[in-house]
Amino acid sequence: MSAQINWGILGYARIARTQAIPAILASGNGRVHAIASRDPAKLAEAREQVPDVIGNATYAEVINDPAVTAVYVPLPNSLHRQWAIAALDAGKHVLCEKPLALDAAEAREMVSAAQHNERLLMEAFMYRYTDRTRQVKTILDSGVLGEIHHANISFRFLLDRPGTIKMQPGLGGGALYDVGVYPINLLGLVSNGALPSICHAEAEFTDGVDVNASVLLRYPSGLLATIHCGFNAFGQMGAEIVGTQGRLVIPDPFLGDAGELTLLTAQGTRSIPVVATDRYASQMRDFAAAILQGRAPQLSPDESIRNLEVLDMIRASLKAH
User: Fold this and answer.
1) Are 199 and 214 in contact (CB under 8 A)?
2) CATH number assigned to the domain comprising residue 226
3) Among 116, 184, 228, 298, which residue carries the largest CB count within 10 Å?
4) Is residue 28 domain-shared with residue 106, that is, in the same domain?
5) What is the pTM assigned to this prediction?
6) Quick check: 152 and 239 in contact, CB under 8 A?
7) Of 98, 137, 166, 319, which residue is the catalytic one?
Protein backbone atom coordinates (compact mmCIF):
# COMPACT_ATOMS: atom_id res chain seq x y z
CA MET A 1 0.00 0.00 0.00
CA SER A 2 1.25 3.50 -0.81
CA ALA A 3 2.03 5.98 1.96
CA GLN A 4 -0.96 7.55 3.70
CA ILE A 5 -1.61 10.32 6.17
CA ASN A 6 -4.09 10.24 9.04
CA TRP A 7 -6.79 12.90 8.97
CA GLY A 8 -8.53 14.38 11.99
CA ILE A 9 -11.82 16.16 11.37
CA LEU A 10 -13.16 18.89 13.63
CA GLY A 11 -16.91 18.42 13.65
CA TYR A 12 -19.28 16.23 11.69
CA ALA A 13 -20.59 19.13 9.61
CA ARG A 14 -22.67 18.61 6.50
CA ILE A 15 -19.73 19.29 4.17
CA ALA A 16 -17.55 16.87 6.16
CA ARG A 17 -20.18 14.14 6.03
CA THR A 18 -21.19 14.51 2.38
CA GLN A 19 -17.97 15.68 0.72
CA ALA A 20 -14.74 15.65 2.71
CA ILE A 21 -14.95 12.20 4.30
CA PRO A 22 -15.93 10.42 1.05
CA ALA A 23 -13.13 12.37 -0.66
CA ILE A 24 -10.54 11.22 1.86
CA LEU A 25 -11.74 7.63 1.50
CA ALA A 26 -11.37 7.94 -2.29
CA SER A 27 -8.04 9.77 -2.24
CA GLY A 28 -5.78 6.73 -1.93
CA ASN A 29 -3.24 8.52 0.27
CA GLY A 30 -5.29 9.40 3.30
CA ARG A 31 -7.48 7.75 5.92
CA VAL A 32 -10.03 9.18 8.34
CA HIS A 33 -8.45 8.54 11.74
CA ALA A 34 -10.46 10.74 14.14
CA ILE A 35 -13.64 12.82 14.13
CA ALA A 36 -14.73 15.18 16.89
CA SER A 37 -18.34 15.98 17.75
CA ARG A 38 -20.13 16.81 20.98
CA ASP A 39 -23.23 15.06 19.65
CA PRO A 40 -23.19 11.29 20.42
CA ALA A 41 -25.71 10.66 17.62
CA LYS A 42 -23.38 12.32 15.09
CA LEU A 43 -20.43 10.28 16.34
CA ALA A 44 -22.50 7.11 15.95
CA GLU A 45 -23.35 8.15 12.38
CA ALA A 46 -19.68 8.87 11.72
CA ARG A 47 -18.75 5.37 12.87
CA GLU A 48 -21.26 3.95 10.40
CA GLN A 49 -19.61 5.95 7.63
CA VAL A 50 -16.05 5.08 8.79
CA PRO A 51 -16.24 1.97 11.00
CA ASP A 52 -12.71 2.17 12.41
CA VAL A 53 -12.70 5.91 13.10
CA ILE A 54 -11.87 7.22 16.55
CA GLY A 55 -14.76 9.31 17.87
CA ASN A 56 -13.78 12.22 20.10
CA ALA A 57 -15.95 14.49 22.18
CA THR A 58 -13.68 17.54 21.82
CA TYR A 59 -11.68 19.22 19.08
CA ALA A 60 -8.66 19.37 21.41
CA GLU A 61 -8.57 15.56 21.59
CA VAL A 62 -8.26 15.38 17.81
CA ILE A 63 -5.56 18.01 17.39
CA ASN A 64 -3.53 16.52 20.25
CA ASP A 65 -3.77 12.95 18.96
CA PRO A 66 -0.17 12.02 18.02
CA ALA A 67 -1.41 9.75 15.22
CA VAL A 68 -3.16 12.63 13.39
CA THR A 69 -1.09 14.11 10.57
CA ALA A 70 -3.49 16.71 9.19
CA VAL A 71 -6.64 18.39 10.44
CA TYR A 72 -9.62 19.34 8.29
CA VAL A 73 -11.57 22.35 9.60
CA PRO A 74 -15.21 22.54 8.39
CA LEU A 75 -16.33 24.65 11.35
CA PRO A 76 -18.36 27.89 11.18
CA ASN A 77 -16.31 30.71 9.65
CA SER A 78 -15.92 32.51 12.98
CA LEU A 79 -14.04 29.51 14.41
CA HIS A 80 -11.55 28.95 11.59
CA ARG A 81 -8.77 31.13 13.01
CA GLN A 82 -8.97 29.74 16.55
CA TRP A 83 -8.93 26.07 15.68
CA ALA A 84 -6.59 26.24 12.70
CA ILE A 85 -3.98 27.98 14.84
CA ALA A 86 -4.53 25.50 17.67
CA ALA A 87 -3.99 22.60 15.26
CA LEU A 88 -0.90 24.19 13.72
CA ASP A 89 0.55 24.82 17.19
CA ALA A 90 -0.09 21.14 17.95
CA GLY A 91 2.11 20.24 14.98
CA LYS A 92 -0.67 19.36 12.51
CA HIS A 93 -1.02 20.40 8.89
CA VAL A 94 -4.34 22.17 8.27
CA LEU A 95 -6.82 22.16 5.40
CA CYS A 96 -9.41 24.79 6.28
CA GLU A 97 -12.72 25.39 4.56
CA LYS A 98 -13.22 28.68 2.77
CA PRO A 99 -13.17 31.44 3.67
CA LEU A 100 -9.87 30.81 5.42
CA ALA A 101 -10.73 33.51 7.97
CA LEU A 102 -13.11 36.41 8.55
CA ASP A 103 -10.59 38.98 7.30
CA ALA A 104 -7.04 39.33 6.02
CA ALA A 105 -5.65 40.14 9.48
CA GLU A 106 -6.89 36.80 10.84
CA ALA A 107 -5.50 35.02 7.79
CA ARG A 108 -2.06 36.55 8.35
CA GLU A 109 -2.08 35.25 11.92
CA MET A 110 -2.90 31.77 10.65
CA VAL A 111 -0.19 31.88 7.99
CA SER A 112 2.32 33.09 10.58
CA ALA A 113 1.42 30.12 12.81
CA ALA A 114 1.90 27.72 9.89
CA GLN A 115 5.30 29.19 9.08
CA HIS A 116 6.39 29.18 12.73
CA ASN A 117 5.42 25.53 13.14
CA GLU A 118 6.70 24.54 9.68
CA ARG A 119 3.35 23.07 8.71
CA LEU A 120 1.15 23.39 5.63
CA LEU A 121 -1.98 25.53 5.69
CA MET A 122 -4.35 25.59 2.73
CA GLU A 123 -7.80 27.02 2.05
CA ALA A 124 -10.19 24.43 0.66
CA PHE A 125 -11.11 25.91 -2.72
CA MET A 126 -11.94 22.55 -4.28
CA TYR A 127 -12.96 24.06 -7.64
CA ARG A 128 -9.30 24.77 -8.36
CA TYR A 129 -8.78 21.03 -8.81
CA THR A 130 -11.23 20.56 -11.68
CA ASP A 131 -10.51 20.00 -15.36
CA ARG A 132 -12.71 23.05 -16.00
CA THR A 133 -10.41 25.32 -14.01
CA ARG A 134 -7.32 23.81 -15.66
CA GLN A 135 -8.80 24.54 -19.08
CA VAL A 136 -9.67 28.11 -18.08
CA LYS A 137 -6.15 28.74 -16.79
CA THR A 138 -4.64 27.28 -19.98
CA ILE A 139 -6.72 29.67 -22.09
CA LEU A 140 -5.84 32.66 -19.90
CA ASP A 141 -2.14 31.79 -19.98
CA SER A 142 -2.19 31.35 -23.78
CA GLY A 143 -3.00 35.01 -24.36
CA VAL A 144 -5.67 34.12 -26.93
CA LEU A 145 -8.11 36.56 -25.29
CA GLY A 146 -5.70 39.48 -25.65
CA GLU A 147 -5.77 42.17 -22.96
CA ILE A 148 -8.50 41.33 -20.46
CA HIS A 149 -10.90 44.26 -19.99
CA HIS A 150 -14.01 42.72 -18.45
CA ALA A 151 -15.07 39.78 -16.30
CA ASN A 152 -18.51 38.97 -14.96
CA ILE A 153 -18.86 36.13 -12.44
CA SER A 154 -21.94 34.92 -10.54
CA PHE A 155 -22.58 32.33 -7.85
CA ARG A 156 -25.93 32.19 -6.09
CA PHE A 157 -28.41 29.64 -4.85
CA LEU A 158 -31.71 29.64 -2.99
CA LEU A 159 -31.01 28.85 0.66
CA ASP A 160 -33.97 26.97 2.10
CA ARG A 161 -32.47 25.14 5.11
CA PRO A 162 -33.95 26.48 8.38
CA GLY A 163 -31.54 27.20 11.22
CA THR A 164 -28.45 27.16 8.99
CA ILE A 165 -25.29 28.83 10.27
CA LYS A 166 -25.15 30.67 6.94
CA MET A 167 -27.79 33.03 8.33
CA GLN A 168 -26.07 33.69 11.68
CA PRO A 169 -23.92 36.87 11.68
CA GLY A 170 -22.07 35.86 14.84
CA LEU A 171 -20.79 32.72 13.12
CA GLY A 172 -19.59 34.49 9.98
CA GLY A 173 -22.72 33.96 7.93
CA GLY A 174 -23.70 35.70 4.73
CA ALA A 175 -23.50 35.19 0.99
CA LEU A 176 -20.18 36.99 0.50
CA TYR A 177 -18.40 34.64 2.92
CA ASP A 178 -20.23 31.58 1.65
CA VAL A 179 -20.26 31.92 -2.15
CA GLY A 180 -18.87 35.39 -2.93
CA VAL A 181 -15.36 34.21 -2.15
CA TYR A 182 -15.45 31.94 -5.22
CA PRO A 183 -15.78 34.72 -7.82
CA ILE A 184 -13.17 36.71 -5.91
CA ASN A 185 -10.77 33.78 -6.10
CA LEU A 186 -11.41 33.25 -9.81
CA LEU A 187 -10.72 36.94 -10.39
CA GLY A 188 -7.32 36.32 -8.83
CA LEU A 189 -6.56 33.98 -11.73
CA VAL A 190 -7.95 36.43 -14.29
CA SER A 191 -5.96 39.38 -12.89
CA ASN A 192 -2.70 37.45 -12.28
CA GLY A 193 -2.97 38.04 -8.56
CA ALA A 194 -3.53 41.80 -8.69
CA LEU A 195 -5.56 43.68 -6.10
CA PRO A 196 -8.35 45.98 -7.26
CA SER A 197 -7.80 49.71 -6.89
CA ILE A 198 -11.48 50.71 -6.72
CA CYS A 199 -14.41 48.84 -5.22
CA HIS A 200 -18.10 49.60 -5.06
CA ALA A 201 -20.57 47.16 -3.51
CA GLU A 202 -24.30 46.99 -2.95
CA ALA A 203 -26.03 44.34 -0.85
CA GLU A 204 -29.38 43.27 0.53
CA PHE A 205 -29.45 42.16 4.18
CA THR A 206 -31.74 39.83 6.11
CA ASP A 207 -31.36 39.12 9.83
CA GLY A 208 -27.99 40.85 9.89
CA VAL A 209 -26.33 38.97 7.04
CA ASP A 210 -25.93 39.79 3.36
CA VAL A 211 -28.17 37.58 1.22
CA ASN A 212 -27.69 39.30 -2.13
CA ALA A 213 -24.66 41.31 -3.27
CA SER A 214 -23.25 42.86 -6.43
CA VAL A 215 -19.74 44.29 -6.61
CA LEU A 216 -17.81 46.36 -9.15
CA LEU A 217 -14.03 46.11 -9.04
CA ARG A 218 -11.44 48.06 -11.05
CA TYR A 219 -7.94 46.63 -11.35
CA PRO A 220 -4.71 48.55 -12.10
CA SER A 221 -4.52 46.94 -15.57
CA GLY A 222 -7.85 48.55 -16.49
CA LEU A 223 -9.85 45.37 -15.96
CA LEU A 224 -13.40 46.08 -14.83
CA ALA A 225 -14.98 43.11 -13.08
CA THR A 226 -18.43 42.50 -11.67
CA ILE A 227 -19.32 39.73 -9.24
CA HIS A 228 -22.74 38.69 -7.99
CA CYS A 229 -23.55 36.35 -5.13
CA GLY A 230 -26.48 35.49 -2.94
CA PHE A 231 -28.80 32.91 -1.52
CA ASN A 232 -32.22 34.54 -1.64
CA ALA A 233 -33.07 33.81 -5.29
CA PHE A 234 -32.97 31.08 -7.91
CA GLY A 235 -29.56 29.51 -8.53
CA GLN A 236 -27.11 31.07 -10.95
CA MET A 237 -23.49 30.14 -11.63
CA GLY A 238 -21.47 31.38 -14.58
CA ALA A 239 -18.51 33.43 -15.72
CA GLU A 240 -17.57 35.46 -18.77
CA ILE A 241 -14.10 36.84 -19.46
CA VAL A 242 -13.67 39.36 -22.28
CA GLY A 243 -10.45 40.59 -23.83
CA THR A 244 -9.40 42.55 -26.90
CA GLN A 245 -9.08 39.37 -28.98
CA GLY A 246 -11.75 37.07 -27.61
CA ARG A 247 -14.43 36.11 -25.12
CA LEU A 248 -14.55 33.03 -22.90
CA VAL A 249 -17.87 31.77 -21.54
CA ILE A 250 -17.66 29.39 -18.55
CA PRO A 251 -20.85 27.64 -17.40
CA ASP A 252 -20.76 26.30 -13.81
CA PRO A 253 -17.20 27.51 -13.14
CA PHE A 254 -17.08 26.10 -9.61
CA LEU A 255 -18.45 22.61 -10.28
CA GLY A 256 -16.67 19.40 -11.26
CA ASP A 257 -19.27 18.18 -13.75
CA ALA A 258 -18.50 17.44 -17.38
CA GLY A 259 -19.43 20.18 -19.83
CA GLU A 260 -17.83 22.63 -22.19
CA LEU A 261 -16.38 26.12 -22.39
CA THR A 262 -17.10 28.42 -25.31
CA LEU A 263 -14.27 30.47 -26.81
CA LEU A 264 -15.24 33.20 -29.27
CA THR A 265 -12.55 34.94 -31.38
CA ALA A 266 -12.26 36.52 -34.81
CA GLN A 267 -11.54 33.02 -36.12
CA GLY A 268 -14.96 31.80 -34.99
CA THR A 269 -16.57 29.99 -32.07
CA ARG A 270 -14.93 26.94 -30.53
CA SER A 271 -16.32 24.55 -27.91
CA ILE A 272 -13.77 23.17 -25.46
CA PRO A 273 -14.86 19.94 -23.76
CA VAL A 274 -14.46 19.57 -20.01
CA VAL A 275 -14.29 16.16 -18.34
CA ALA A 276 -15.83 15.40 -14.95
CA THR A 277 -13.54 15.72 -11.94
CA ASP A 278 -13.94 14.54 -8.36
CA ARG A 279 -12.80 17.94 -7.08
CA TYR A 280 -12.94 17.06 -3.39
CA ALA A 281 -10.94 13.84 -3.77
CA SER A 282 -8.39 15.62 -5.98
CA GLN A 283 -8.00 18.32 -3.35
CA MET A 284 -7.53 15.84 -0.51
CA ARG A 285 -5.10 13.80 -2.60
CA ASP A 286 -2.96 16.84 -3.48
CA PHE A 287 -2.82 18.12 0.10
CA ALA A 288 -1.82 14.70 1.43
CA ALA A 289 0.75 14.30 -1.35
CA ALA A 290 2.21 17.71 -0.52
CA ILE A 291 2.70 16.56 3.08
CA LEU A 292 4.22 13.22 2.07
CA GLN A 293 6.49 14.78 -0.56
CA GLY A 294 7.51 17.84 1.42
CA ARG A 295 6.21 20.31 -1.18
CA ALA A 296 3.66 23.09 -1.36
CA PRO A 297 0.04 22.25 -2.23
CA GLN A 298 -1.73 23.87 -5.17
CA LEU A 299 -3.11 26.92 -3.34
CA SER A 300 -0.71 29.21 -1.51
CA PRO A 301 -1.47 31.05 1.74
CA ASP A 302 -0.57 34.32 0.00
CA GLU A 303 -3.47 33.75 -2.38
CA SER A 304 -5.86 33.27 0.54
CA ILE A 305 -4.66 36.50 2.14
CA ARG A 306 -5.20 38.35 -1.14
CA ASN A 307 -8.70 36.90 -1.44
CA LEU A 308 -9.58 38.24 2.00
CA GLU A 309 -8.00 41.61 1.25
CA VAL A 310 -10.49 41.94 -1.61
CA LEU A 311 -13.31 40.80 0.66
CA ASP A 312 -12.22 43.38 3.24
CA MET A 313 -12.49 46.07 0.55
CA ILE A 314 -16.00 44.89 -0.36
CA ARG A 315 -17.17 44.87 3.25
CA ALA A 316 -15.66 48.34 3.78
CA SER A 317 -17.53 49.64 0.74
CA LEU A 318 -20.80 48.26 2.13
CA LYS A 319 -20.20 49.96 5.49
CA ALA A 320 -19.37 53.25 3.79
CA HIS A 321 -22.93 53.58 2.59
Assistant:
1) no
2) 3.30.360.10
3) 184
4) yes
5) 0.96
6) yes
7) 98
